[in-house]
Amino acid sequence: MAEAKPAAPRAVPKAAPVRGRRSVSQWIRNEFRLFRKNKELVILSLPGILFKFVIAYLPMVGLILAFKNFRYDQGLFGSAWVGFRNFEFLFKAQDAFRIIRNTLLYNFTYIITGTLVALLFALLLNELTGKLMKIYQTTMFLPFFLSMVLVGYIGNAFLDFENGYLNEVLGYFGLEPHNWYLETKPWLFILPLVALWKGVGFSTLVYYAGITGISSDYYEAAKLDGANRVQMMLRITLPLLKPLIIILFILGLGNIFRGDFGLHYFIPNNVGPNFPTTDIIDTYVYRALTKLGDVNSGAAVGFLQSVVGLVTVVTANYIVRKVDRDSALF
Amino acid sequence: MSSKNVQVLINAFFVVVCFLIAVPFLLVIAISVSSEESLYEYGYQFIPKEWSLEAYRIVFEKPDPLIKGYGVTILITVVGTAVSLFMTALMAYPISRRDFRYNRPVTFYVFFTMLFNGGLIPFYILMTQYLHLKNSLAALIIPAVMNPFNIMIMKGFLDKISMEIIESAKIDGAREFRIFFRIILPLSTPVLATLGLFIAFGYWNEWFNALLFIDNDKYIPLQLLLVRILSQAEFLANSPMAEVSDKLRFAQFPTLTVRMAMAIVASGPMLLVFPFFQKYFVKGITVGSLKG
Fold first, then answer.
1. Less Cβ crowding at N or C end of chain B, within 10 Å?
2. Measured distance CA(B143)–CA(B80) in Å, rounded
């Protein structure tokens, strides 16, 4: 869905013209003139740029913490350099392997299930009309507006050992109750289910919006050619949705090293025994910061998370560009 | 299959899906209107064995933390949304102008933060050690002020505003500031309304920064209040004191029903308001998700 090419802006020549002998001073003068011409827009963007600088760019400097032995009294720059020592635990402790594996596998599961289910819902919604469809949308969208804290409460209502509804159901069928929070296996299903429950309404809406944005001309032409609804779905809707699906997929992949902290903190309730299957990088780093008093290993994992995250998203985008230029993110 | 049948089938499918999605809400509500004793006897039930509004009576009897929580949450929501909207629009406008010479570098500068950031620990140290924002309302507002995603949605909307409007304003002698405040902002009310809702919901549900930066009782927003109640209850249940607390149960503050009633009182109003705004959300997503 390419942007309509902008009516050639009667703007500013792009590059400095002649690069001759006197070009440097000319170039500077030209740049300066152009700057003055853009001055007002620069001033308008300045507050945002400064804000982003402090809030988003300054912390990037803090990535050097991964190579330091941080002490609050010595500060960021005063703390001693320790080389790669903070990373050693990655190869020693099984924690590191565990949290990275969990983060990747869970996120991958969320991306796949979320995309497939939302696509299916959106395609089916598109076949409906009228008031009912609105009600479905609203209902599916509802969990999106709950905070994860509240979802934790809901989870607790189902999973509580003594009173939880799930154990009641098990009891009804004569099965043994489970102490869900102290077990590991069930979380492999519970977490994706909760993620789907919470997120599917939003993703469905995104895809549905994408579908409604498709020009009706295509469908009318297809109808004239005698296509049925299934054919239209597969031959028109899906192909035209492809860029959107790909973009969201890349965004997801790029963030594959960023776990959903709230989901993995409040739903399993931050209880040690289920860490093997619930602990992710984000919860680990949070605990390193607040509980363990071991900022260093947290900083090392955080460094990996940021850097590898960047590499994944750039790589994914590169691949998409090769396959389909228009779908690429940047 | 006739198309009528297909419709019925799809409708049936969504009725089931929606039922499954709504069920968890019903359980929480049911727990909150059950009597405490019946919960211990029968466990949580979708249809209370014994109805009771006792939990709500307890919540409203000592409403101080709740009122305070509402106060903090409303304050950060109102201020945060206003500041965020302004900053988002202010950032999105220049980069939506194709004739802005520094369009590309500035766009990159803003969106790069979506792909790469310093992570939690450096951010925490910046906020607490350098900006000294621990235990302040600013710590709850600032981190979410300029979300690149919102800027992207805003830019997508502004891209569609015709250059001719801007050109003609310029010919009339308007400067960029004037154009921004007098033309761009009024023209963007639909997208501002949508983004405002998104941002407001974000602030309303904000707990992460509260968890990180707030540890005195003065600035506890609703969500953090809920976190504390939950973790307190978990602490009691999992500690060696569990036996004792079991006996103290009825006397203890966060009883099962009260907990759920708290959760409902804290988040109910927003959930009731939400359906009325839904169409703006849908509109916003349409604006944002399609690049053309």
1. N
2. 10
- CB-CB contact of A41 with A52 (8 Å): no
8 Å CB contact between B212 and B124 = yes
Q: Compute how many other C-beta atoms are within 10 angstroms of the C-beta atom of residue B247.
A: 9
CA of B15: how far to CAs of A133, A143, B8, B202, B274, in Å? 10, 16, 10, 29, 20
Token output for B231: 């973790």
**How confident is the model over B69-127, as pLDDT tens digits?**
999 999 999 999 999 999 999 999 999 998 899 989 999 999 898 888 888 999 999 99
Q: Which helix (H) or strand (E) holds A305?
A: helix A295-323
Tell me the pTM.
0.84
Query: Which three-class secondary structure state does DSSP give residue A170?
Result: helix
**Do the chains contact at B163 and A6, CB–CB below 8 Å?**
yes
- Residue B212 CA to residue A6 CA, distance in Å, equals 45
Instruction: Give A-chain residues touching B271 at CB under 8 angstroms.
Output: 142, 145-146
A238: which residues sit within 8 A by CB, 6+ positions away?
A123
CA–CA separation, A192 and A187 (whole Å): 8
Give the B window 7-36 contacts with A, CB below 8 Å: 7, 10-11, 13-14, 17-18, 21-22, 24-25, 27-28, 31
DSSP state, residue A81? E
Task: State the nearest Cα–Cα gap between B193 and chain A, in angstroms.
Answer: 17
In the structure encoding, which two tokens stand for residue A314, read together? Answer: 């750039």
For residues A139 and B22, the answer to whether their CB atoms sit within 8 Å is yes
Q: Tell which A residues from 260 to 319 touch B, by Cβ distance under 8 Å.
A: 261-262, 266, 269-271, 282, 285-286, 288-290, 295, 298-299, 302-303, 305-306, 309-310, 313-314
Give the C-alpha separation, B132 to A287, whole Å: 21
Question: Which DSSP symbol is given to A102?
Answer: H
Main-chain phi, psi angles of A68, to 5 degrees = -125, 160
Tell me if A128 and B7 make a contact (CB, 8 A cut-off): yes
B123/A12 CB distance under 8 A: no
Top residue of B16, B40, B44, B96 to mutate, by most chain A CBs within 10 Å, is B44
Spell out the residues 6+ positions from residue B115 whose beta carbon is closer than 8 angstroms to its own: A254, A309, A310, A313, A314
**A221-268 confidence digits (pLDDT tens):** 998 998 888 888 888 999 988 888 887 887 787 788 889 999 999 999
With the CA atoms of A272, A273, A274 and A275 taken in that order, what torsion angle do they form, in degrees rounded to the nearest 10? 50
Phi, psi of A176 (to 5 degrees): -70, 140
A250 within 8 A of A313, measured Cβ to Cβ: yes
Residues in chain B with CB shorter than 8 Å from the CB of A48 are 87, 90-91, 110, 146
- How far is the alpha carbon of A22 from chain B, nearest alpha carbon, in Å? 23
Structure tokens at B31: 């727990």
Sign of CA dihedral B123, B124, B129, B134: positive
Residue whose pair of structure tokens reads 């597969």 in the numeric block: A234
Q: A231 touching B, CB under 8 A?
A: no
Provide the number of CB pairs (under 8 Å) joining chain A to chain B. 278
